[in-house]
Design a protein that fits this description.
- The protein is of the alpha/beta class.
- The chain has 6 helices and 10 strands; from the N terminus they run αβαββαββαββαβαββ.
- It has helices spanning 7-20, 39-47, 62-72, 108-121, 143-155, 164-173; strands at residues 29-33, 52-54, 56-57, 81-82, 96-100, 127-132, 134-135, 162-163, 176-184, 188-195.
């Protein structure tokens, strides 16, 4: 079996790392939801040696991720684990969660379950870093995102570019608040959600 490879993952790994690295300086154990090929994990783990980067994905993806992880031979990059947002979640502990290009693939109900699961995992103050294309109030950031959303929905009517209004509602139910909204190349964003601490005002 050859290692899986996505050109887009190779192209966006540097800007994503630039966005997330300053926000993970005190984190020690991170869960990645939907690791895909494993390309991001290998790149990020090498750049963040203080951080244990735990890959996860649905079972059929684990073999490909495992090839990247095994080749990397990094002490902070353990073997990938199975995680389906509709099924059993790992116990942790994790003090940060990262996910890239998953929200538009999952159904809206699954996105809600992802936020609920992250809310259960994170300690107060923990971060959920979510990368991808998003819209607000049904308005897309670009014509390319309009076309991408239409393509996704033709392929699978349950998928689609997600609206920040929906995500903020799911986050609030999970005890998370939007701390930062970072513009990224190619009309993407990195959304930084934080688990509320006791005494924080609802957002």
């Amino acid at each position: 079996m050859d290692k899986p490879f996505y050109p887009s993952s190779d192209e966006n790994k540097a800007p994503i790392l630039a966005a997330i690295a300053p926000r993970l300086g005190t984190a020690r154990r991170l869960l990645e939801i939907g690791s895909g090929t494993g390309q991001h994990a290998v790149h990020f783990a090498a750049a963040l040696p203080h951080l244990i980067w735990q890959c996860s994905d649905v079972p059929e993806q684990l073999a490909g991720i495992g090839l990247w992880v095994t080749e990397a031979r990094r002490a902070n990059l353990p073997p990938p684990i199975a995680l389906d947002v509709d099924g059993t979640w790992p116990d942790g502990p994790f003090d940060a969660v990262f996910s890239a290009n998953t929200a538009h693939i999952l159904s809206l109900a699954q996105v809600a379950r992802m936020f609920a699961g992250v809310g259960r995992l994170l300690p107060p103050g923990g971060l959920f870093l979510l990368y991808g294309p998003f819209c607000r109030g049904g308005r897309h950031q670009s014509e390319s995102n309009v076309a991408f959303d239409a393509w996704l929905r033709r392929r699978d009517p349950a998928s689609g570019v997600r609206d920040l209004d929906d995500l903020e509602r799911f986050a609030a139910s999970a005890g998370l608040g939007l701390a930062e909204d970072i513009a990224m190349p190619v009309n993407n964003r990195t959304l930084v959600w934080q688990r509320r601490r006791k005494g924080d005002l609802p957002q």
